[in-house]
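Hey,
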Amino acid sequence: MRSRTVGVALLVAGLQLGCRTPDRYVPGPDARESDAIGDAGGDGDYDASRTSAADAAAEGAEVARQAPDGASTSDMASIADGCSGDCTPPAVIANAIVPANGSTGVRSDTKISIAFSEPMNQQTTEAAFASADIPSRTYSWDSSGTILTVTPAGGLAYATGTDPALAARSYSFSITTTATDLAGNHLQAGSAVTFSTLRKITLEVGVVPQMSGNVADGGETIVDDRWASAGCDANEENRAFVTFNLAGLPPAITAVDGAELVLMDNTTAPPSTPGVVVSVGHILFSTTGPSLFGSQSDALGTLSRSGQISRMTNNALRDAVWADYGDRTNRANRSQYRMRVEVQCPSTPANARSDYDPQLSRLSITYLIK
């Protein structure tokens, strides 16, 4: 085994020496022995190939002496270059960077991840990470010490606005060659990444008047009017319903991030009864009529009132809008809701009710998109 190692070492050293091109030979004071080898023909002419071969043999023998049994050719080459131990520079695994360079539509909770070919010196590697776009961040490593995770403080930001043509927020980061492995070898090459996050757009969608109005427990239905009541009228209960048109939403939304239902009072009606609780249900209907009064709905919560405006914004409403958007073909681009008072008619106080103007109602939707 040792002789084989020596042979490989000699070959490595010979190859390395063979890459050197000697200048014209000028013997020095200690050159007699090498002259004897170089002038083996006895003609006084120096033969560089003979000296090179002799030097290669000597160098190879020294490499073989330093190398452990079983050392590879690359290990011996490193020893010949004056390096021992781990001399292989680490590398960034290009297809294991998250987010990838050029990514779009990155979510705000995404963490940056960089994978390396071997365990890294954590201090030098963290110091080699740079990003002017993420000034506040924390670092963590996996158990193998090969994957660096960078967590932006507060998450990544979205570009926000009401214009669907709004430009996305861009981020950049880099890792430089000052990062080292555990043996002190510098990163083979640096990496630079640029990506962009999702855009956060808010859109108010309008009412469909012909599908918005009021239905009484006796069957009377009113649509396309400026009045809709949720409450008691003597012994009769009325329930208001409203339909919003989702056709203005773009076709490639990633998620609905929030929604707010806003109902405006009908100012010509008597003031709403103080303290009346009005609940909102998510409903689906294709035609108006008496069946609307008792049709099943999914409870979303209750309205909060301030002056002449009633509002509701919660996760249940957001999820209802997202469901309607996902099923917009079957729902004809509609998102529909029904309001009712949480009292038994006849009520105490008498005629507890809230009267709305359906045509002033609005649904504000905040969505995420690339």
